[in-house]
Design a protein that fits this description.
Number of domains: 1
Strand content: 25-35%
CATH topology: Dihydrofolate Reductase, subunit A
Radius of gyration: 15 Å
Number of strands: 12
CATH class: Alpha Beta
Number of helices: 4
Helix content: 10-25%
CATH superfamily: Dihydrofolate Reductase, subunit A
Order of helices and strands: EEEHEHEEHEHEEEEE
Largest sheet: 9 strands, mixed
Structural class: alpha/beta
CATH architecture: 3-Layer(aba) Sandwich
Distance between the termini: 17 Å
Shape: globular
């Protein structure tokens, strides 16, 4: 199985504030849907609870939480990252989609980091993607910078693969 971590990050690796995305970029959201559709997605409880309409359709939603009594209709609940990875071991590809704690735990298992790098800093953010060690990761693809028409923010898509 190929394990991908997919995230929208600022230059300083910020990913969230108060349980929300920092900058919803339309093209990033379309890319996320396109890449993850039909594949298992693994997320923490807070990430799952940030979805306004519940489980994301067309994907096997797996929630990692320490809460043994947690239930989420339409999603599977696991109580550790290892349990979630075992649950998707038969998949060709799986994605970890957040949040910060789960990314930090999963980065050691990941094959690829699929990042939308937003050309901004957010010192007020409270959730961050883990530091990316250049000795472990090689850039395999990067798009030209584009501008989101709604926010005016510049962004680019970057793929890093484990060395």
């Amino acid at each position: 199985m190929t394990l991908n971590l997919i995230a929208a990050v600022t230059r300083d690796l910020a990913i969230g504030l108060d349980g929300n995305l920092l900058y919803p970029v339309s093209e990033d959201l379309r890319r996320f849907k396109s890449l993850t559709m039909g594949h298992p997605i693994i997320m923490g409880r807070k990430t799952f609870e940030s979805f306004p309409k519940g489980p994301l359709p067309g994907r096997r939603n797996i929630i990692v939480t320490r809460d043994r009594g947690y239930a989420a209709p339409g999603a599977e609940v696991c109580h550790s990252l290892d349990e979630a990875l075992s649950a998707v071991a038969d998949a060709d590809v799986a994605f970890v989609i957040g949040g910060g704690q789960l990314y930090a735990e999963a980065i050691g298992h990941a094959d690829n980091l699929l990042l939308t790098v937003i050309e901004a800093d957010r010192p007020d953010a409270d959730t961050f993607f883990p530091e990316i060690n250049p000795d472990c990761w090689a850039k395999t693809d990067e798009t030209e910078s584009a501008t989101d028409p709604r926010s005016g923010l510049s962004y680019r898509f970057v793929c890093l693969s484990r060395r």
